[in-house]
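Incident review: delayed structure delivery

Summary: a single-chain prediction request sat in the queue longer than the usual turnaround. Root cause was a stuck worker, restarted by the on-call engineer. No data loss occurred. The affected request and its eventual output are reproduced below so the record is complete for anyone auditing the incident later.

Affected input:
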Amino acid sequence: MRVTRRCFLRVTALSGGGMLLGAYIEPKVSAQPQAAPPLEPTSFVKIAPDGTVTLISRNPEIGQGVKTMLPMLIAEELEVDWTSVRVEQANFDAKYGLQTTGGSRAASNNWLPMQQVGAVGREMLIAAAAKTWGVPASECYAAHGRVYHRLTDRSMGYGQLATTAATLPIPDMKSVRLKQPSEYKIIGQSQAGVDIHDIVSGKPIFGIDFTTPGMLYAVYEKCPVYGGKVMSANLDEVKKMPGVRHAFVVESPLNVGPVMEGDPGLEPGIAIVADTWWQAQSARQKLNVKWDEGPGADQSSTGFAQRAEQLSKQPPNHTLKNDGDVEAAIKSSAKMVEAAYSYPFISHAPLEPRNCSAHFRDGKLQIWSTTQQPARGRALVSKILGIPEGDISINLLRAGGSFGRGLTNDYMVEVSAIAKQIGVPVKLVWSREDDMTHDYYRPGGFHFLRAGLDSSGKAVAWSNHFVTFGDGDHYSPSASIAPGEFPAGFIPNYSLNTSLMPLRLKTGALRAPGANAISFVMQSFVDELANAAGKDPLEFRLELLGEPGHQIVNEAAKPKVENEPAPTRNASRPQAYDVARMRGVLQLVAEKSGWGKRQLPKGTGMGVAFHYSFQGYFAHVAEVSVTANQALKVNKFWACGDVGSQIVNPSGAQAQVQGAIIDGLSELMHQEITLEQGRVVQKNYNQHMLLRLTQAPQIEVHFLKTENAPTGLGEPALPPVIPAVCNAIFAATGQRIRTLPLANSGYSWA
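Output delivered after worker restart:
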């Protein structure tokens, strides 16, 4: 269910007076007879008799600032001072409508509904004041949490009016006036995150902090090869360890095939439950397990690379797009450019490892989770453990980072299975090694590219044989590519082909899924063509895009993906590629960076890249310096984005772009996940490094406001980061980067 524009609002009196404002969810209309969902109020605004206004944020908060942004939309129309409101995190409940974080959809999904909630509340409070004074509502207005009578300057606070407002008819949603942007007092103004004080003062607000009386602590040992099953283990010995209360095998009928589902859920393993997490983890070190490793033990990163090279020389399995006659155009071109690109698997590596708490009692399960998709998580727990969804409740806790990891809910199923068996509150906390070796990885990929330029240096042909992971016509989650991915539609003779390799490993969405890797390849190869054509890289891109009125409409069809999480499904693939918007950010970043106008010292270069994903248009310029021994310093980054007509919280928006750049630089230099005999080699941050503060560049962020609906920022700023730096390295050194991470080519941070 989701809250739509056709929702209607209701108010109820709070205990002791006051007002609760919410939205009814319309039952879904269907041609087939079905039970209508219950009409429950979705409460976003609470006004107490003392005038305290509490705003509810429905979406999970994973560090992207949505707990601040959504209430800002309500507060703007409600006419309350932002500094005076309280904000609460909603728990998972159908009455709140759509509760999910993913795909950078928070702004676009909530822009209108949240403003309407605030506007209806404002109008009802005005009507309550007018009734109290016996004057027309048109003579009254609201400001700063009070309603004023224009003619007499009388006023009443919202707390005084709330009980009366709760008894009044609901205004017609279509008749409620929303503010014009020129009237905004909160939207468009930088606001600190509502949890900042609690974070810096160490308040226990994250999932890993949660405790409840009588809680025990659990660890969960799984096979180092994905999907392996327990054959035997020394559980009797482990149960004698200090503090250990339980140690048992958890069975699961997991089918490890050549393509894994997007969220298969429960891996077989061994649960150890103790009085403290450290006791459970210490006992785990004494485990001696014999595993049936299954078919995944034959996999290796070296084998994947060798197989990809073999497949590149064979006819592709699938043709996703074929415009014109690519082979003829390449043969007749004035110059042909050929290159092979590759990128590795990557772990999400959030600072807070996976954790979840649960209590099973009297047939009902209560969960405390940092999931990005509570509805999907509840359905998965219900399916695997046989507990009706109506008997499962989920409390949403703040996550210490996620980057897409919370879209999948294996850890939620694990703790639920443990809780169901022991019958007391239990918290499961993964170790850092668990988090990195049992992730849903960003899939690696191999691109074998050829292109042709005519005598004027214009790109006339482009061929890509993309070797990725899957089986038959099914792609592993986040491993596919859209037929209309840039530069499809911009080059007259264009072909996109794929070949698939089986993969017995979980893959999934990492911040800007698909785009975070594909942009590296596409924008780097475009740079190669610019160099081959003897043209300025930025001017070459503008020429490739064509005139501002040009739009490319992408196909609706996409490769089949096994149970890909809904918020990321096809989210990076545009319905229409607006050339004017992309040209706009390219021209803006050229202006802000002084592209082509600055004299740079030897060993220093500038690179440019752009990408459209998740409804956002972004162009970046990076300036880098490279020493003779390949020590790299990114001096400065210019990021320019178009995410529509309005930035709700500028400070939050800037932080999102800065964070995307930092993430991209981390992925660039060191991050990779490799397999040997089916085992993940990298186990901690020393092998899968994050960018350090001293390695971070100066970052300049600019937004180009256009007359388009507001869209999100969590993901679209990341994809151009890596190619901008790689293209700058080429400008500084003449060395073209075609394989990631950079450390494998001898680079290090200066």
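Verification: The first strand starts at residue 8 and ends at 12.
Action items: add queue-age alerting; document worker restart procedure.
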